[in-house]
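pasting Purine-uracil permease NCS1 for the record, 554 residues
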Amino acid sequence: MASKCIVSHLHLYPHLSLHSAIPHQHPNFSRLPPTNLSLPVKFKASFPKRCIILVPRASSSSSGQSSVGKKFYEFDPHPTLTNDDLKPTRPSQRNYHWKQMARHWVGLVVGVPAYYMAGSLVELGMAWWQGIATVVAANMILLVPLVLTGHPGTKYGISFPVLARSSFGIRGAHVPTSLSALVCCGWYGIESWIGGEAIYLFLPNSIKQSSFSQPLPWLGTSPLEFACFIAFWLVQLVAVLKGMEGVKAFQKYAAPTLIMLTSFLLIWAYVKAAGLGHFLNMSSRLSSSEFWSLFFPSLTANISFWTTIALNIPDFTRFAKTQRDQIIGQAGLPIFMGLFTFVGLAVTSSTQVIFGHVISNPIHLLGQIGGLTTMILAILGISLATMATNIAANVVAPANALVNLYPSKLTYRTGALLSALFCVAFQPWRLLKSSESFVYTWLVGYSALLGPIGGIVLADYYLIRQTKLSLKDLYSLSPEGAYYYCGGFNLAALAALVIGILPVIPGFLRKVGIVSSVSDAFVVIYNNAWFFSFFSAGLLYWILASLSFERETK
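structre below
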């Protein structure tokens, strides 16, 4: 049977393109100049498979110009693949300069989870400088895929769900975007729970000591705390439904306010602990072997902290004015994280002097401080930090992913509402029950899902396509399109994704207690889940794409 899904590599033949080699059913096709319709690639007619899986080295648009807003309307996109939220941004919509990108990251960094992450490193035995070095190293590593993944967003004005179509296929893109969306929904729940804790902190003791504050075994928390969680969830939903313009406006005021409140907390710790001497003299409680056994999973966890953003960063860089703006605006991430980690570690270590024991959770710390002024600042600071992070990091991505599933029926607002509903199912109060469960189960665990996606997307965009995409084919369901592959799925990418995830599963099952013991090799793989899955999946995808091309062009 002749193949029904053939997409040829054309990088060896610069005089041809998919559009010149294969006639398209397009209203303007009759006006195109005549072209040579013969392909120099020989396919065996007796090939028995239904689909020949090839990954094109070049697309029908090789110019790669950034003025995509005008180009988009030169063709008719398939209605099931686009709506106003998925279209490439017009030049007039590109108003993110580097300062605004930097404010975006400040609003993301200055939050309770980042503070909690820093405090967890001290609680687990690291010295202050070891904790800061771990965080800065992780963010410097992450900055590379962050900037690389942001490039197509700025160049073509497309969001991550559209970018994923180039590597996973027009329909296959639903797999990586759905996995990323699930993780974002989990984070949305965590951030909303933190906001609910701030409300609970403000309640009078008479209510907190009532029967409603008693935990229910089947729920895993108390009805009162759950009610506070839902209350914050509802308040936050108002801001969430305002869309990207609401995100930009919110971040404009959130970043400076959060910096001010963080500075107040550091000053309080300095005064109450009579300086930072205890913090600066704090040594590690870990032996050399214990430190290294903790360092690598901690490094992975800190990288995992931002992997959802590293994947979905095109959702934001598509609004950047230039590549320079998106690169410089994001280059400050390791600095911002390093400074905020310093504050988190300094305050956390000071609690040992002030209260006699370490308090790594800032919500619990503010509860210990007490006082009406503190309570008001706590509500303001925690709510602002939580909403700044949640709206930017954990709503846009799953909303766009859901819109990508049904563009003709869903909008950003409905996608955001559904994402908010899904977050409750993650039961975030269980994920935050301890430093161990937060860092080494949640953060390290989901990095095994997102790492291979990032490796495949970057290998496809840089090694296979050399940064050249066809906007027309990204919005086309034509079997002749560059990204249709086999029925809309790139089986090479899906295979690499599965193989990148599988070796991490045994270590994860051991961590959550489903199995009692596994090979030490699987433990090492799990502790380095992001590194292993990112590079193994990316390398495997590149090999599969290269081998299939060489086989079919002989």
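The two ends are 20 Å apart (CA to CA).
The domain at 87-434 is CATH 1.10.4160.10 (Hydantoin permease).
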